[in-house]
């Protein structure tokens, strides 16, 4: 993997790129398929080799598209998928993982996440993840949409301390995790994977993001991504459905936000001063 993208360390020291790619809503529209595959492959070429997907996306269609996009490139990528909570039983998670591997045309996932906390006992899910790891079907496992209390419960159970990451909604407009979840994770050397880092393209219509973008001659998306990329121990997985958007996002790595710009963002998008329940998309 040769790239100019800084890495973020997993608890075992393995590095993943701080800027990766999301895939939600890809593979659902045949007319967009070629552009989406080109976008993913362009991102890989640029070093955005951390790629996130899920069995939920397009009911498997997104994993299938990604499998096609990864032809000949699988070994360059740190591949992440997620299991539905209702599939996350001891046997269910193993079967779901096998289905994902088939759609993704690979023999292993680099990271397998529980998509959100569900009603299946977490102990069973951890057992399934550990069995998948022992069998070489996954290399790491983790969770998603877990708030601080959920994380405390997880690490207290047998095997739970092997959790590699928590994928959460985090961006300049959704700063709740800064109050306790991100510090809790940093204390365990566990990186956060920021999903919807440009807020699913729903950032406020007029904010200091626009002022900074106008002054710097960059896009609002680049400013929002540059902000996330400044956070230690956080990687971002923006989804971009075109080569143009992927290149735009990659250029966020060159954007160094200055103290006055960060202060303007803090004034508008205030950091949390008390606990806010973890938001989810
Ligand atoms: P996002 O990455 O914040 O935003 C994606 C949207 O922004 C798309 O509409 C995309 O448009 C647009 N966009 C991205 N870069 C752009 C650019 N440079 N210029 C203009 N538009 C741009 O939102 P997300 O897809 O919700 O989150 C990212 C990934 O995180 C997902 O794809 C998924 O893999 C993961 N995720 C996980 C969870 C979870 O529960 N664990 C939840 C949500 C998301 P185009 O498609 O037209 O490029």
Automatic annotation (TrEMBL):
<dbReference type="GO" id="GO:0016491">
    <property type="term" value="F:oxidoreductase activity"/>
</dbReference>
<dbReference type="Pfam" id="PF00248">
    <property type="entry name" value="Aldo_ket_red"/>
</dbReference>
<protein>
    <submittedName>
        <fullName>Aldo/keto reductase</fullName>
    </submittedName>
</protein>
<dbReference type="InterPro" id="IPR036812">
    <property type="entry name" value="NAD(P)_OxRdtase_dom_sf"/>
</dbReference>
<feature type="domain" description="NADP-dependent oxidoreductase">
    <location>
        <begin position="19"/>
        <end position="266"/>
    </location>
</feature>
<feature type="region of interest" description="Disordered">
    <location>
        <begin position="1"/>
        <end position="25"/>
    </location>
</feature>
<dbReference type="InterPro" id="IPR020471">
    <property type="entry name" value="AKR"/>
</dbReference>
<dbReference type="InterPro" id="IPR023210">
    <property type="entry name" value="NADP_OxRdtase_dom"/>
</dbReference>
């Amino acid at each position: 993997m040769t790239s100019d993208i800084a890495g973020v360390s997993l608890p075992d020291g393995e590095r993943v790129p701080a800027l990766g790619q999301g895939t939600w809503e890809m593979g659902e529209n045949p007319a967009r398929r070629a552009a989406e595959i080109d976008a993913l492959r362009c991102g890989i070429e640029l070093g955005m080799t951390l790629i996130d997907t899920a069995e939920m996306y397009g009911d498997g269609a997104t994993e299938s598209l990604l499998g096609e996009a990864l032809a000949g490139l699988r070994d360059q990528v740190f591949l992440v998928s997620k299991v539905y909570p209702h599939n996350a039983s001891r046997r269910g998670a193993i079967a779901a993982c096998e289905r994902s591997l088939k759609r993704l045309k690979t023999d292993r996932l680099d990271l397998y996440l529980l998509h959100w906390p569900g009603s299946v006992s977490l102990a069973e899910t951890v057992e399934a993840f550990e069995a998948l790891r022992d069998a070489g079907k996954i290399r790491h496992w983790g969770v998603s949409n877990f708030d601080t209390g959920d994380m405390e419960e997880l690490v207290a159970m047998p095997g739970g301390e092997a959790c590699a990451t928590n994928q959460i909604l985090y961006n300049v407009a959704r700063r709740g995790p800064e109050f306790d979840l991100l510090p809790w994770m940093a204390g365990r050397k566990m990186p956060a994977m920021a999903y919807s880092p440009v807020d699913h393209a729903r950032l406020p219509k007029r904010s200091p993001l626009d002022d900074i973008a106008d002054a710097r001659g960059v896009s609002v998306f680049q400013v929002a991504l540059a902000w996330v990329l400044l956070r230690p121990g956080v990687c971002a997985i923006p989804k971009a459905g075109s080569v143009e958007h992927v290149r735009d996002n990659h250029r966020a790595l060159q954007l160094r936000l200055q103290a006055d710009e960060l202060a303007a963002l803090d004034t508008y998008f205030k950091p949390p001063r008390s606990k806010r329940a973890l938001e989810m998309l």
